Amino acid sequence: KLDHHCIWTQNCIGYRNQKSFYLFTLYMSIGLFQFWKGTLVAFGRMYGTCKFFSFFEPGVYILWIITCFSAFVVGIMIVALLISHTIMILTNHTTLMTMKLKRMCPFPFC
User: Fold this and answer.
1) Is the whole model's pTM more than 0.90, yes or no?
2) What mean pLDDT is predicted for residues 25-34?
3) Cβ–Cβ contacts within 10 Å for residue 101, how many?
4) Which DSSP string do the residues of 73-96 spell out, in sequence order?
């Protein structure tokens, strides 16, 4: 059965591929946490030195800021998808059923 069309995977999500969609959101969340951990560790190592801006070229810092901003915005959406789909799986509901009921999803955009 078809549940909904996902804009993240550009595919229709249903009973046959819900597991792969859930694993996609899980692995993306793990990857985002690894990115932020690596970023904080690298920033912590560089911040303690006197030559903070001499480690890389200035363009690298600009790209780092843009990447961190993008990872933050996308990370919020991915983690929200992971949490909402975890709740739906635990309560044995699909996205379509949840949107019809409007009481299972804790987020206002569900």
Assistant:
1) no
2) 93
3) 12
4) HHHHHHHHHHHHHHHHHHTT--HH
